[in-house]
Amino acid sequence: MKLDGFRELLVKKAGNVSVANLVRFMRDDVLSDLVIESLEKMANHDSNGSKANLAIRDFGSEMDPEHEPKMIHDALSHHASQYKAALNSGNNNLSNAHAKQMWKILDLAHKVQSHSDGKLDVDAVATQPWERNLKSKSETFGDRMNNIKRRIDSGEPVSDKEKDWLTNNPTTRANKKPHFFINDTENWGYGGKDFSFLQQAPHESKADEVRLHGHNGAYPLEAIKINGKHIDIEDRPPSDHYISHPFDSHPIMEHSLEKPGERTPERDAEYRKARDEYAAGPHMDKYFADMESRQEKDPQAHASRGEQMSAPVHAPVTPLDTESYRVPQESAPSSAPTSAPAAASQAAPAAAPPSDAQREARRKVIATLPPELRAKMSKLYGE
Question: Which of 141, 126, 134 shows the shortest CA–CA distance to 328?
Answer without folding.
Answer: 141
